[in-house]
Amino acid sequence: MGKDKKGKNQNTSGEFKLKETLQNEDIELTRELLRTDSQYRKIYSVVQKLSDTYENCKGHAPPQRYTELKDMIKDTISDDVLSAVKQATQSQDPGPPKGKMAGLVLACRQLSNNAGDSLSERASSSTQSQPSRQSTQSQPSRQASGKVTQLLQASYSFNGAAGDFSDKILQLHKAELYQDVEKKKKIKDRYETKALRLHNRLEKLKRDYAESKHLDFIRRYSALREMIKPVIRDDGLKPEDF
């Protein structure tokens, strides 16, 4: 009987550590995804501006619209824009968290280890100090959970993320944490694809614009309109909702 109780307590402790590890991974991934999303939306705003300007000038006379089409394309393919988009395609590992964030994450991990040790110590002395093993485990679990909540909420506050993300993560079960982490990894991968796709679209727009310079007014007017459409109508470039 003694061996069975000890083994069960060890499994409970191991499961607790695993859940805390998943929470840390989820919150770090969410923080990185929020940063990626914010950066991508900034460069995608160029496409949105192009779309709005294109739609707003549809009723203008061809000579006026011809000039407007040229101007909106030149704004979209400027060196600053292309440089920003190219930089977004270069996926870089931000590495371990630094500064205050590092302290918070390390504290979460240390708290996870301490909580697991505390559970083991309580389990080994349960026959002497507590009549109920269940009540022995619940007290350190609640205490650890409260400290983890404070650390996770503080880390999100430091990074400017919405507090409800930390609340949602803390409420997830272990299986849900696995699913949430995998979902966010896929979204992050799609953002890398979007950035590359946007870069290719703008580079082609730049080439098409340069090649259209030798055309006469009528043919170039039509070419300018057609080269814009693939950029503003590509739904694959739109930011993700998560």
From TrEMBL:
Q: Does the keyword Coiled coil apply?
A: yes
Please give the organism.
Answer: Sinanodonta woodiana (Chinese pond mussel)
Start and end residues of each stretch annotated as Disordered? 116-147
Residue ranges the record marks as coiled coil: 174-208
Protein name in UniProt: Uncharacterized protein
- For whether the record's keyword set contains Coiled coil, the answer is yes
Identify the keywords attached in UniProt to this record, alphabetized: Coiled coil
Superkingdom per UniProt: Eukaryota
- Composition bias type Low complexity, residue spans: 123-145
